[in-house]
Amino acid sequence: MKRILIIEDDPVIAHIYRTRLENETYAVETCHDGQSGLDRVQEMNPDAILLDLMLPKMNGIEFLKKIRGQSRFASMPVVVFTNAYLPNMIQEAIAAGASHVYNKATLTPKQLLDCFYFLIHGQSRGADPFATGLRGSSGAGLAPKTSRHERLRKPGEVPGSPPLPVFDSELYRAFISSKPETIAELRAVLQQFMETSDDAIRDRHVLDLYRKVHALTARASLANFADIAQISSALEVLLKELHEQPSHINVSTLRTVAQSVDFIGELLNLCEPRCGDLPAPNILVVDDEILSRRAIMHALEKGNLKSTGLEDSVSAFRLVGEEEYDLIILDIQMPAFDGFELCARIRSFPTNQNTPVLFVTCLTDFKNRAKATVCGGTDFIAKPFFFIEVTLKAITLVLRKRLMPRLKTG
After folding, report:
1. Is the pLDDT of residue 259 over 50?
2. Which of 2, 292, 400, 406 has minimal Cβ neighbours within 10 Å of its Cβ?
3. What is the pLDDT at residue 133?
4. What is the Cα–Cα distance from 18 to 49, expressed in whole angstroms?
5. Domains defined along the chain, listed by start
6. Using an 8 Å Cβ cutoff, are 65 and 80 in contact?
């Protein structure tokens, strides 16, 4: 019997994958941190490893480097899952010797099983595991998002779209049953994080919140809640950066974290699974400073959000009258007319009356925040900003606009 070691700090996710692999007649063991995983791999000598990169005591990159430095583990298959918003860590995992790297927010049990079968037995079973975007260790990369169905039917829903597979139905029910506890835990830790002024205590709270959101990402994906998985995967990266760079905890980042947790709560209350990607959003960025504009557009690209950039408000004014956008991002200080005036003019066009407008600016005092609201602005981010903060805010605003009918009736 082939043996697989799972190294994953979330016991729920570890249990799900262990059960699935055991049903395929693998002998499976689990470890909840990198150090215990390293100790166990020496004793167990498994045929393959499933490794999360974000682990306590020793992260997945360090684990990979240590086992690849030992000749007996040099060619052992190691399947890694991680967050797609951590491209540097993905590249480090590839360089350290990962056999394959998956996006945790979109990884399906079938993809994982097919991958292990190929790596352990040297042949595919039916569908080619490389068809989903997997590449070998010589050029491993992040598997792109794949969808099992465009939209998954809930248990009891009128037929017309594909039903949930049996395993997904079980995960769906488990996810739904834990919904009240999940919301309560997130909000309780968020409140503690927001209210404390002690740096050491606040750091513990942000780390606790990160771990809960980190676990939510994979659970939401396995239960087919693609929208929640997308938001939580971006939020966990912002929380990770705030933990590593606490000097960036400010009014802007606190507001972004709080809004994201609130939105996750709204999405949890909708109780509607969905697989696959929404249509690509149409985003406009208007900033006369080229470096700032490029920085914002780069932050959007990190979230697979393509955008159009303009340097002057006059051109933007003409464009918003002709084309509908999912999100408009504005600077305040611009020639011709400033961001406030442009926002007010945008609201005069039927095409973009309800389009969210996000101000990204260094003018963060109360007066300018108030003016942003009065002219029709939706939200505010202070410069300088974390790239992931812009990414997270943009994903939240785009999803909120697209899901507004459901949010109002949910």
Report:
1. yes
2. 406
3. 40
4. 12
5. 3-132 (3.40.50.2300), 167-270 (1.20.120.160), 283-409 (3.40.50.2300)
6. no
